[in-house]
Amino acid sequence: xxxxxxxxxxxxxxxxxxxxxxxxxxxxxxxxxxxxxxxxxxxxxxxxxxxxxxxxxxxxxxxxxxxxxxxxxxxxxxxxxxxxxxxxxxxxxxxxxxxxxxxxxxxxxxxxxxxxxxxxxxxxxxxxxxxxxxxxxxxxxxxxxxxxxxxxxx
Length: 154
Ligand code: CTP
Ligand code: ZN
Prior knowledge:
single chain, binds cytidine-5'-triphosphate, Alpha-Beta Plaits, binds zinc ion, 9 strands, SH3 type barrels
């Protein structure tokens, strides 16, 4: 625990997504499909001080773990996030999120004229030009997707 203040209580079982890029906690909540009506404890901290990145967000979800697709999506918005699996109050696994070099299936090209948006059976495909700031290049039309283009789809 590097911070001097505990902003949100520890959880017993579940997942803590830590070191989320400041301001993106609510996007993470959306990626996880959390509505708040699941009868599970969810705690969210936004723009709290962080030693490593000045400010960060944290999302703690009781009683669930994340699937790889969810972790990839979080990585696009918060490339420095860490996923901590908590069991019986202890961190039993800590994983840095990772953006794959090639992104397929997860997002659509923002260029409406792109062949991947036509009726052709062509799956969207992007190359990661930069992780932070996020820049993804479409394999088909060369369009450069930024974080805001990706956010619109989540
Ligand atoms: N945490 C929690 N509930 C627990 C255990 C840990 O909510 N029962 C949270 C901590 O508050 C922290 C994150 O999970 O936000 C990771 O915990 P820990 O590894 O103990 O903290 P640090 O050493 O600060 O993590 P890092 O090295 O990743 O910064
Ligand atoms: Zn394209």
